[in-house]
Design a protein that fits this description.
The protein is of the alpha/beta class and 322 residues long. It folds into two domains: 6-262, Vaccinia Virus protein VP39 (Rossmann fold); 272-320. Helix content is 39%, strand content 24%. It is built from eleven helices and 13 strands. The protein has helices at 6-16, 21-36, 47-56, 58-75, 93-101, 115-125, 140-143, 164-177, 190-205, 239-245, 305-313, and strands at residues 83-87, 107-112, 132-137, 150-156, 178-187, 209-212, 231-236, 251-262, 272-273, 279-280, 284-291, 294-301, 319-320. The strands form three sheets. Strands 1, 2, 3, 4, 5, 6, 7 and 8 form an eight-stranded mixed β-sheet that branches. Strand 10 (279-280) and strand 11 (284-291) form a beta hairpin. Helix 2 (21-36) packs across helix 3. The chain is globular. The relative contact order is 0.13. Bound molecules: S-adenosylmethionine (SAM).
């Protein structure tokens, strides 16, 4: 289970101190309904709306980014980035998850077209562990200047909101600004997967190396499949989150897909990405693995003692060492 870092929860609680829970619930329900109907963060049009987003969506996008970064960082453990650019940053979700994954980060720049979400990001930053923050209000299509180049560039749940015709230009700029690593996180839907596949094709053509989640740089095994590549992150719901959604289950599952493309990492031992929940029995572990052109089904028999033990410890989204 991946919850918000405690400093974010406390900072958010402080922002909520004088907010009517009835008003928050009303705006949170509107936000949730908008997302369920395929809408976007354009619904966020006030300070209260930004808080509603932070209560009902940020914990899920944070958990997704945190999981994507954990999978990525595990493959490049020597990478200690100092700067981060967060595009379509909203309340700074990906930056805060980045700070958790890489305590080496010293500065972050946040770009967003929504002033209410950026204002909340600034308020949360007041409680953040030491990191210099610059906030750039504006449209990603025009605001991505060369001086924003950073070791890590991130776009979390943002490309989904950018017009496809503009998104390709934005992607080219994101890659140009990424000193070492570009991480894109999208909803774990078929549309999200299609967007990630298009990014993958584009970035490979630019000479990028795929760090994660793909096990290889060949044809994606699910490109022509009815299935689609995605992963899951479970997150706890706070009391406000439960109340705002009128929910009683104390957790939720967020489906996401991501791509981490890098330069200058040399050969990365990527292992084989596990594409579905392993089926564990007393006799074997059945795994679905990412392999070139095929989603390989591998049965690890309990008689293969060490391999069986290792496979039993693995979960959906982990990389099985080669
Ligand atoms: C779903 S929110 C994601 C926020 C945050 N990255 C997260 O993961 O929680 C999408 C964000 O992208 C921003 N956005 C959408 N289109 C944009 C554009 N063309 N330029 C800048 N920001 C944009 C929205 O204002 C919003 O804050």
């Amino acid at each position: 289970m991946t919850g918000l870092s405690s400093w974010i929860s406390h900072a958010l609680d402080r922002q909520l101190e004088h907010v009517s829970r009835g008003d928050l619930r009303e705006r949170a329900l509107a936000t949730s309904e908008t997302y369920r109907a395929g809408g976007s963060s354009r619904i966020v049009a006030s300070e209260l709306d930004a808080l509603a987003y932070a209560v009902v969506r940020m914990p899920a996008t944070y958990a997704a980014v945190r999981a994507a970064l954990a999978q990525t960082a595990a493959l490049i453990p020597d990478f200690k980035p100092r700067s981060l650019l967060d595009v379509g940053a909203g309340p700074g979700t990906a930056s805060w998850a980045g700070l958790d994954a890489w305590p080496s980060l010293k500065r972050a720049a946040l770009i967003d077209g929504n002033p209410h979400l950026l204002a909340l990001a600034r308020k949360l930053h007041a409680s953040a562990p030491q990191i210099d923050l610059s906030v750039v209000p504006g449209d990603a299509a025009g605001a991505l200047d060369d001086d924003l180049a950073a070791d890590v560039v991130m776009a979390s749940y943002a490309l989904t909101e950018i017009e496809p015709a503009v998104a390709k230009r934005v992607l080219a700029k994101l890659w140009a600004l990424a000193g070492r690593l570009l991480v894109i996180v999208e909803p774990g839907t078929t549309d999200g997967f299609r967007r990630i596949l298009a990014c993958r094709d584009f970035l490979l053509a630019q000479g990028a190396a795929i760090v994660a989640p793909c096990s290889h740089e060949g044809v994606c095994p699910l490109a022509e499949d009815a299935r689609w590549c995605h992963f899951g992150a479970r997150l706890p719901r706070s009391r406000d989150h439960l109340a705002a959604k009128g929910a009683s289950v104390p957790y939720e599952d967020e489906k996401f897909i991501y791509l981490a493309a890098g330069r200058g990492f040399g050969a990365v031992a990527r292992g084989s990405r596990i594409l579905a929940t392993p089926k564990v029995s007393k006799a074997s572990v059945a795994l679905t693995l990412c392999a070139p052109e095929t989603a390989e089904r591998r049965i690890v028999d309990r008689r293969q003692k060490e391999a069986y033990k290792a496979a039993k410890r693995c979960d959906w989204g982990d990389a099985l060492p080669s």
